[in-house]
Amino acid sequence: MRPFDPFINDFNASFTAIKTIEDERSVKQSKKDEVDSLGCIVRIKELEARLFQSRAADARGEAVSLRRLARLESKKLNETYYEKLSKLCSQETEVACLLTKMEAAKQLLV
């Protein structure tokens, strides 16, 4: 059995205290690194969300423009259709009138 040496006991106690402090620092640094890493991930996801929101807003704006364009095109096609239909009806009336005159002329000749 060794004799009691206060120097060695003090050294062991100091060494244990230093080791405990280093372990605590290591754990704190590890936790800090984890928090920093999570913070970085959160910032990236927030930026990603803003990007998608921006793209969605652009897509909504494009959809509104395309709807407006489609309505204008549809209106133009309807106007063209009714103009052509009107001309056709007018021509049909003229043809009917000419047929009536030809029938009348034929009756006179017979």
Walk me through the structure:
The protein has 110 residues and is mainly α. The protein has one helix at residues 6-109. The longest helix has 104 residues, at 6-109. The mean pLDDT is 85.
The ordered H/E elements are H
Proportion of residues in extended strands: under 5%
Shape designation: rod-shaped
Largest sheet: none
Distance between the termini: 156 Å
C-alpha Rg (nearest Å): 47 Å
Q: Unreliable stretches, pLDDT < 50, 5 or more residues?
A: none
What's the β-strand tally? 0
- Give the averaged pLDDT, no decimals: 85
Task: Find the structural class using helix and strand composition.
Answer: mainly alpha
Helix content: over 70%
Output the number of helix runs. 1
Summarize the structure.
The chain starts with 5 loop residues before the first helix and ends with a helix. 95% of the residues lie in helices and 0% in strands.
Topology:
Blueprint lengths: L5 H104 L1
Describe this protein with a few key phrases.
1 helix, mainly alpha, single chain, 95% helix, 110 residues, 0% strand
